Amino acid sequence: MTAWASLPAEEVVPGIQRQTVHGERQSLVRYWYAPGSVFPVHAHPEEQITAVLSGRIRFEVGGETLELGPGEVAVIPGGTPHGAIVVGDEAVETLNALSPRRAVGPVVS
Amino acid sequence: MTAWASLPAEEVVPGIQRQTVHGERQSLVRYWYAPGSVFPVHAHPEEQITAVLSGRIRFEVGGETLELGPGEVAVIPGGTPHGAIVVGDEAVETLNALSPRRAVGPVVS
Q1: How far is C-alpha B23 from the chain's CA centre?
Q2: Which domains does chain B carry?
Q3: Complex ipTM above 0.85?
Q4: Nearest 5°: phi and psi at A106?
């Protein structure tokens, strides 16, 4: 058992922090985005399912734009370029499930 | 993009509902447990990472007991018998990441 509050937060880019719990087959990542923060477009081999818990965020996924708010979920296939920007003045919290388990690697991976 | 609110809820056992978003490699499942509800001990081959969003829940995992509240997370290895019971008067909401993707099968699988 782990509490998010007990896990170290990694600052991925300015204003965006993540904490990660690893299984053997998957990782669950809690993201926190400050208002105004931007996650540059990037890609990783892992499939990603993002569930927004609070705030609003606009994703660019494979060249398309989708805006998610609390209670909304998106599946981003492995290898698909994606980025995100916070919408409005509220911080954003998401849980991202990644499979396979995320390799420890570059900060923006 | 999907909203949990738009997905059908499956009643797994009385008082416990789930909604599922599938990727190719994993499934993300939203569980809602009414106060007093009990998820009998069961096992499934998928690895499970459970994150509690609200309420308190007591898991029995492989014969051990752990109690989770908001902001707490547990990894349950594939094939490990586990069950759960709501603690207190508040409903429980969790997000469970399962990998591999959960097969469509029996209601309690």
Answers
A1: 17
A2: 10-99 (2.60.120.10)
A3: yes
A4: -60, 155
- DSSP 3-state of B26: coil
A41-72 pLDDT per residue, tens: 999 999 999 999 999 999 999 999 999 999 99
pTM of the model: 0.93
Closest CA to A76 of A101, A47, A100: A47
Partner-chain contact A1 B68, CB within 8 Å:
yes
Using DSSP's 3-state secondary structure scheme, residue B14 falls into coil
Residues A22 and B63: their CA atoms lie apart, in Å, by 22
Closest CA to B21 of B8, B39, B12: B8
Nearest alpha carbon to residue B86 among B42, B53, B37, B47: B37
**Closest approach of B106 to chain A, Cα-based (Å):** 23
